[in-house]
Amino acid sequence: MKAATYPVPAPAGVRSALALMLDEAATAYNDGDYEAFVAAYLPSPETTLIAYEPGEGPVADRGRLVLRGSDAIRAHYAEAPMFDADFKRPTLSYDLLHADLVSPEMAHVVAFAQLSGGDDRVPKQAISSLILRREKTRWRITHDHTH
C-alpha cells in the first residue's frame, strides 16, 4: 500500500469538524466570550498570529507584526476593544472555502469572514488562512493569518 502524499483534500468528516470549529469561534466572538474565543488557539509558545493592521504610513512596531505564543495572542485580544462590554460588536460568520490535510493531524484552512453591523471601524470582510492541529477530537489554530 502506498503512503499518502500530502497535502490532500480534507475528507468530509474532517471538513465538517473544521467548519464546526470556525462556527464555535464565531459564536464566541459574537457572544463577547473572550475565553471561548482564545480557546480556539493551541496553547503553545509556537502558536502564531499575524497581527498587522493595514493603514497609512510605515509599520512602527515590527515586533507586533507576528505574535508568537498563545500568551502573546491572549494578551493581544485582551487589549483589543472587541471584547469590551460596551463595544458595538459586529456579527461574525465564516464560510469555509478550502480545507486540506497537510499531515494526518494538521490542516490548512482558507475561510471567508463576513462581519455585519456593529462598529463602522471594523472591516466588513476578511480572508483567513489558518493552520490547525488536531488534538484528540478538537481542532485548534496554530497559525492565523487573517486580513
UniProtKB/TrEMBL annotation:
| Residue ranges constituting the SnoaL-like domain according to the UniProt record | 22-145
UniProt feature coiled coil, ranges: none
Q: Note the SUPFAM superfamilies from the entry.
A: NTF2-like
Family annotation (Pfam families):
SnoaL_3 (PF13474)
Q: Under which name does UniProt file this protein?
A: Nuclear transport factor 2 family protein
Q: Which domain of life is it from?
A: Bacteria
The top of its lineage is: Bacteria, Bacillati, Actinomycetota, Actinomycetes, Streptosporangiales
Show the InterPro entries listed in the entry.
NTF2-like_dom_sf (IPR032710), SnoaL-like (IPR037401)
